[in-house]
Amino acid sequence: MIELKGVTVRYPNGVVGLDDVSLTIPDGQFVVVVGLSGAGKSTLIRTINGLVPVTEGSLVVNGVEVAGASNRKLREVRSGIGMIFQSFNLVKRTSVMNNVMIGQMHDIPLWRSFLGAWSAEEKEIAYQSLERVGIVEKAWTRASQLSGGQQQRVAIARALAQDPQVMLADEPVASLDPPTAQMVMKDLQRINRDLSITTLVNLHFLDLARQFGDRVIGMRGGKVVFDGTGVEADDKVFEDIYGRSLTADDVLPGQA
Ligand code: ADP
């Protein structure tokens, strides 16, 4: 479970990233967070992961209080969280397999990862993770030779290989074309349902959120301005989140 109570995050330059946010995300929930650039979506994810310190309030992730936690406690929290980024963050010059192995690295001494001295069990976990995203046949391909959608699938497999309780995805489909974005969102949803991994996905646009959000959280100016189902996220909610009316440009081709 992830529980924020009155969480405010103020960056050292005085900018408020999160403004008195209270949220409870039960285990296994699939949550989509929407909002414009600068709304606080990324700050929310980085705060849950302990990368940005909580200025005020309480944040409990999987039973650990993150606000004011020691580095050792923060490492413990992070080991249970798989991260997925817009830019995939793969090591492009090496194989898909090595990239996925990096997901298990918090358990593996660094020298073994450099030598590629993986145990049979570690390799099995990597293969299983690649199978979950339907890309196991690319295991020995260089990451640089994959399309954007395939790279994001490898990044999802890398997060899975870590055996996380929580997955945090920061605009994971922002660099992908609409059909590929749909496929990657479906992968994330399927994995959430199959493995009950609590999943938070930041998205810029509401239409994917409406489609995939069992729960949609709308943010604006560091505050939660909507918390409901995708179905409840109507055009009025759009105005609350984006500060203007919905236009044709806000709907992906083929979604209208
Ligand atoms: P989003 O992910 O919704 O685009 P962010 O969480 O990145 O929003 O940003 C929320 C606010 O915090 C913005 O005003 C942004 O400029 C500010 N911000 C984000 N990161 C930093 C940082 N490292 N230092 C100072 N301000 C930041």
Task: Give an account of the 3D structure.
The structure is a single chain. The chain has 256 residues and is α/β, with parallel strands linked by helices. It folds into 2 domains: 1-59 and 172-243, 3-Layer(aba) Sandwich (Rossmann fold), CATH 3.40.50.300; 81-163, 3-Layer(aba) Sandwich (Rossmann fold). The protein is 35% helix and 23% strand. The protein is built from 9 helices and 10 strands. The strands form 2 sheets. Strands 6-7-8-3-9-10 form a 6-stranded mixed sheet, with helices on both faces. Strands 2-1-4-5 form a 4-stranded antiparallel sheet, with helices on one face. α7 (178-195) links the parallel β7 and β8 (198-203). The mean pLDDT is 90. Residues 11, 13, 15, 17, 35, 37-43 line the site of adenosine-5'-diphosphate.
Q: What characteristics describe this protein?
A:
256 residues; alpha/beta; Rossmann fold; 2 domains; four-stranded antiparallel beta sheet; 23% strand; binds adenosine-5'-diphosphate
Question: What does the secondary structure layout of this molecule look like, with pairings?
Answer:
Elements: E1 2-10, E2 16-25, E3 30-34, H1 41-48, E4 56-61, E5 64-65, H2 71-79, E6 81-85, H3 96-101, H4 110-115, H5 120-132, H6 148-161, E7 166-170, H7 178-195, E8 198-203, H8 206-212, E9 215-220, E10 223-228, H9 235-242
Helix pairs in contact: 5-6, 6-7
The structure holds adenosine-5'-diphosphate.
Adenosine-5'-diphosphate binds at residues 11, 13, 15, 17, 35, 37-43.
